[in-house]
Design brief:
This protein is of the alpha/beta class and 400 residues long. It has two domains: 38-256, Aspartate Aminotransferase, domain 2; 259-399, Aspartate Aminotransferase, domain 1, CATH 3.90.1150. 35% of the residues lie in helices and 15% in strands. It is built from twelve helices and twelve strands. It has helices at residues 5-10, 38-42, 60-73, 84-95, 110-123, 162-171, 227-239, 246-256, 259-277, 297-303, 323-332, 380-399, and strands at 77-81, 101-105, 126-130, 144-150, 175-179, 202-206, 220-224, 283-287, 312-317, 337-338, 348-352, 370-374. Helix 4 (84-95) runs parallel beside helix 5 (110-123) and helix 11 (323-332) crosses helix 12 (380-399). It is globular, with a radius of gyration of 23 Å. Bound molecules: pyridoxal-5'-phosphate. Pyridoxal-5'-phosphate is lined by residues 83-85, 109, 154, 179, 181, 206, 208, 218, 220, 340-341.
């Protein structure tokens, strides 16, 4: 049939041959997915993975990345979300209902706590806080539905007593959800933990960090091994219209090839910095779970048997330093950029006042303002020099 040029431009005749093979998988961008026939339309099973029916339910591009992340983490089923925080919110909104109790570690990623506090105010959910290194502070009632775990916590970096917390949660039939961003599926297998082979029910992962690796893309994932849990999450995901951009997925997929190398390199450099930071008199405490002096060291050792520990290290300044000194310190850094997040090529620094961040008393943490370093891919000697220079600047200003 003869067609007008405008129509021919839209219905281009060339199709990629099935046999073509490339290093990266082809990129599918889709809102509409075309059905080959009304039979295919009426027989679609949009709740099944790999039954493509509409962009929000997934494309080969999103399923490829999801499969990779699920396998990396030791899980089976997966969903992608537009950010790590939206992955957390998906779990909260899927499993929590009015009257339920949810348990969160005191060192949990702050916006998760904020989200839960919001649910508490608006929907009558009770939020309870536990100390991740004191399992006895986790005292679930029969209303408890979900416990959030994070290993290690984002700012003070305590590694939780995972085995004891999971066992207690399982004994009370409470769902366990782990924010797996720090371990990234590389430091430990959350679905097969330690000697006892315990498993969490759900992992969420801010793919924004190590999987993206560029400091430029936001994405999250939710992984399970349990089909029933996945189906519930899948339905919530679908009715909330959560979806991710194929282009962003393809960028993360491309970065996965170098993820383990970057993770191990950043872990190693963080350990180099840890050793140096511990010798600086301006810091009264250096926080890193793989440090034998750390209060949570034995829990880290029990679970992270290959010795991995991500690229984060925090310091607490001597309390003689006021906020202005810490601000001078951060402003004097040249290589470390002031910004949230981690896992990218550029080292980052952020300052925190612990007093505003914790509900419980923590005897293992000294008083003072905290600075967190996120180690990028720069040479550790240059990073040390940068911190040394900033410390000298603080001293100089104080002596003026
Ligand atoms: C431990 C942890 N979980 C989740 C998130 C949220 O990820 P996103 O920034 O993609 O929303 C972050 C972000 O900083 C994080 O540090």
């Amino acid at each position: 049939m003869k067609q007008n040029p405008q129509t021919r431009l839209i219905h281009a005749p060339r199709k990629a041959p099935q046999s073509i093979s490339t290093i990266q998988p082809p990129l599918y961008r889709a809102s509409t997915i075309i059905f080959n026939s009304t039979d295919a339309l009426f027989n679609r099973h949009w709740t099944d993975d790999y039954d493509y029916s509409y962009g929000t339910h997934g494309t080969p591009t999103t399923f490829t990345l999801g499969d990779n992340i699920a396998q990396l983490e030791g899980g089976v089923y997966h969903l992608l979300t537009p950010s790590g925080l939206s992955a957390i919110n998906l779990v909260n909104s899927c499993f929590l209902s009015q009257g339920d109790e949810v348990w969160v570690a005191d060192n949990i990623y702050g916006p998760n706590m904020e989200h839960l506090r919001n649910l508490e105010k608006r929907y009558g959910i009770t939020v309870k806080v536990y100390n991740p290194i004191q399992v006895e502070t986790f005292q679930p009632t029969d209303k408890a539905k979900l416990i959030w775990l994070e290993a290690a916590g984002s700012v003070t970096l305590e590694f939780p007593d995972l085995n004891s917390l999971i066992k207690k949660a399982q004994a009370h039939h409470i769902l366990t959800a782990l924010d797996n961003t720090w371990g990234a599926g590389l430091a430990f297998n959350a679905f097969d933990l330690g000697e006892e082979h315990l498993s969490v029910d759900i992992t969420v992962h801010a793919l924004t960090k190590y999987p993206s690796g560029g400091g430029d893309i936001l994405m999250g994932s939710v992984v399970t091994r349990d089909k029933e849990l996945h189906n519930k999450l899948f339905r919530t995901h679908a009715i909330q219209g959560i979806s991710v951009s194929g282009d962003d997925v393809a960028q993360i997929q491309r970065s996965l090839a170098s993820m383990q190398l970057r993770y191990e390199h950043q872990s190693k450099n963080a350990l180099t910095l840890l050793t140096w930071l511990k010798n600086q008199s301006e810091f009264i405490q250096v926080l890193h779970p793989a440090d034998p002096d750390n209060a949570s060291y034995s829990y880290w050792k029990e679970i992270c048997q290959q010795g991995h520990s991500a690229g984060l290290v925090s310091v607490i300044f001597d309390s003689k330093h006021q906020l202005q000194d810490i601000r001078n310190f951060c402003d004097s850094l040249k290589l470390f950029k002031l910004g949230f997040s981690w896992g990218g090529p550029v080292s980052l620094v952020m300052l925190y006042n612990l007093k505003d961040m914790r509900v419980l008393e923590h005897s293992h943490l000294k008083d003072g303002l905290l600075v967190r370093f996120c180690i990028g891919l720069e040479h550790p000697e240059d990073l040390i020099q940068d911190i040394q220079h900033a410390l000298e600047q603080v001293k100089k200003v104080k002596n003026e």
